[in-house]
Amino acid sequence: QVRLAESGGGMVQAGGSLRLSCEASTRVFNNLAIAWFRQAPGKDLEFIAVSNWNHATTYSDSVKGRFTASRDSAKNMVYLQMDSLQVEDTAVYYCAGRLFQPATDRASYDHWGRGTQVTVSS
């Protein structure tokens, strides 16, 4: 089994930064593609980024240049550094995992964290 748990959410003023963490409890961490999604109030789930240990990270246009995903294999951790946050970034953020090939659609992912709230105020 793979279990994912997000942390690091909170409240920040527009223009500020937060770093989210996702811990993966699994023996196959290095074989996982781990993605970030978010869901704003009243809206559908939105893809943000996905990375694999041997692939270039892919970002959505809405966060490209502002968010950076990284991975620490020794700790079974992935991170999402969020800079220049905007009110529109307010959402519940989820990490999601699947074996091997990365994807941008939520249906491709088998494992999900419970989410962490990010609130950006003006």
Topology, please?
Elements: E1 3-7, E2 10-13, E3 18-25, E4 32-39, E5 46-52, E6 55-59, E7 67-72, E8 77-82, E9 91-99, E10 111-112, E11 116-121
Parallel strand pairs: 2-11
Antiparallel strand pairs: 1-3, 3-8, 4-5, 4-9, 5-6, 7-8, 9-10, 9-11
Verbal overview:
- The strands form two sheets. Strands 2, 4, 5, 6, 9, 10 and 11 form a seven-stranded mixed beta sheet that branches. Strands 1-3-8-7 form a four-stranded antiparallel beta sheet, with no helix packed on it.
- A hairpin with a 2-residue loop joins β5 (46-52) and β6.
- The mean pLDDT is 94.
- The chain has 122 residues and is an all-beta fold.
- It has strands spanning 3-7, 10-13, 18-25, 32-39, 46-52, 55-59, 67-72, 77-82, 91-99, 111-112, 116-121.
- Helix content is 0%, strand content 54%.
- The N and C termini lie far apart (41 Å).
Order of helices and strands: EEEEEEEEEEE
- Spans of at least 5 consecutive residues whose pLDDT stays below 50 are none
Helix content: under 10%
Structural class: mainly beta
Question: Major sheet, described briefly?
Answer: 7 strands, mixed
C-alpha Rg (nearest Å):
13 Å
What is the CA-CA span between the terminal residues? 41 Å
Strand proportion, as a percent range, falls in over 45%
The residue-averaged pLDDT reads: 94
User: What is the tally of helical segments?
Assistant: 0
Total number of β-strand segments? 11
Principal-axis shape equals globular
Features:
122 residues; mainly beta; seven-stranded mixed β-sheet; four-stranded antiparallel β-sheet; 54% strand
